[in-house]
Amino acid sequence: MSDNPFERYGLDPFAGPARITERLRELAEDCEDELERAAIREAWEALTLHPRRRLELALQAHPESRPALGRPPRPRRRARTEDPLGLADLTALPSVAGALAKLELPDVPLDEDEILTGRKR
Amino acid sequence: MWRPDDQQLLERLEERTVMRALWRRMSRGAPPPSERAAGLVHLLRQTEEGARAVEQALEGELELLVALTRPRRYDGLRPTLIHHLALWHHAVARVAPPDAEAEEAWLHAFAAWTALATEATYLRALAEAVAGDAVPAVDREAVALGAPSRLLAELEALGLEGAASLSSTTALALRVLSRIPEALARCGTPHDTTHALAREAHPLAREARRRRRTLVDAAMEPVHHALEEAQAKGQPGEPHLAAFASAVRVWRFTAHDLELERFVLDQVIPIAWELYNHKHWSLLRRLDQTIAAVVDALANRLGQDPELVAYASRVAQMLVFRAELEGRFETQLEIAERALALCDTHRNGRLVCADLLSERALRRIETAPLWDRKRAALEARVDTRRAESLFPGLDRTKRAKEAIAREGVEP
Known about the structure:
The structure holds 2 protein chains of 2 kinds. Chain A is mainly alpha-helical. Among the domains of chain A are: 5-59, no CATH class; 93-117, no CATH class. Chain A is 48% helix and 0% strand. Chain A is built from 7 helices and no strands. In chain A, helix 2 (17-30) runs antiparallel to helix 3. Chain A is elongated, with a radius of gyration of 31 Å. The termini of chain A are far apart. Chain B is an all-alpha fold. Chain B is elongated, with a radius of gyration of 31 Å. Chain B has helices at 4-27, 38-44, 48-58, 63-68, 79-95, 100-119, 121-131, 137-145, 147-161, 168-178, 180-184, 196-201, 203-232, 238-253, 258-277, 281-302, 312-325, 329-342, 347-367, 373-390, 395-406. Chain B is built from 21 helices and no strands. Chain B has 3 domains: 1-69, no CATH class; 91-231, no CATH class; 232-406, Tetratricopeptide repeat domain (Serine Threonine Protein Phosphatase 5, Tetratricopeptide repeat, Alpha Horseshoe). Helix content of chain B is 75%, strand content 0%. The interface between A and B is medium-sized, with 27 and 37 residues.
């Protein structure tokens, strides 16, 4: 990780002290690690209280010359079907049916099934 | 659906991957720099050649991209790209082992910073935006445009650390500082850097020379102490030889520094005379052998640099000592002729050369068969006449002239 606060905290050297303060405050508020928060405070001091140091660090920071990232794609919404459920939709898949066939299941109505009702017959 | 934003994200990830591979290749294993350094790859890939280089890099072939990070000239490139290159090469230079690649990295970092400082608009705008009125304009300008000078200071400090032990880092700093005029040719500066003389006169070239001098002086410090101690012991002896051997080691280490050649000549002449006057031939021969390479190097420079004329007689004197100590006659004469070619008014050179020419005249006659003595006498006369013109009245010349006369030839 870079030692240069402009690079480390993604700060724009052209932004000026007010924007730097705002950005570092946001980072400090979101930070849960005490050591990291202290490092952010140290960076803030170096960048805002010592303008000459700020200039030296800006010169030593790689300029951000890549285009800003665009928006991530929206999460895909679950497609709704307009067709009502049919009996075929309730049929177990062959693989599930095969697995179930190996078990000996009780041949009782659902409202009397002890697993579903929790009652012993 | 593949969106433009997705393409942009893909390219950013590619550029980061390529930047890290490029860093591994150039730094040879140091931890990678900030992700923002990938902006260098992004800018390079904007040209057709750069795009091809990035494609090749993604397939593991980095050399074209490495070549693009080392442009022949920096003026004319986009300032943002030059800024990336300055930081990139500076970072590589700081972490790479002190070899030829590190040397190139320092020189490219220097050239890039100098090109940026010469263009000035970009750095001034950055300084104005970053510091504004919080830093006085003079200081702001000095910080913004002073990177080339700070790099030279950094090199000097780096070199000083191992100067006394002649470390490889000091050798690297010396090499880079001596190549600064060459680096200046890679960037447009207010001075006309296409001409060697103008490059040498550039303030940064002068600063590099001064800092290099400091490093050479630091490397020579143990030699100075050794010489002082040797002098304190009185008569010239082994300690002097050891001190001069150290001086020659430093001279080789500095890639044949001219000032050291002058220093060695200045120091050695009185000691050599003392040995000569006391007829310590063995020590004088060893002293000559110890510093022979330095004397020869300065002798070679003398013909090319008129400013060194003040050293002509000192170099000639050391060659005359060598001629006198030499066992083979033809070589003796050859060395004496060389001394005279450097300084034709050198008294001892003329004396020794005249004496050797007269000796050759005598040998020509003495060794010639009886039936061929006249021709030998005619050849000997050429030598004696030259000997007379160099140093009239030598006993050996007189004897040679008499021998010539005995063969019926007018001397």
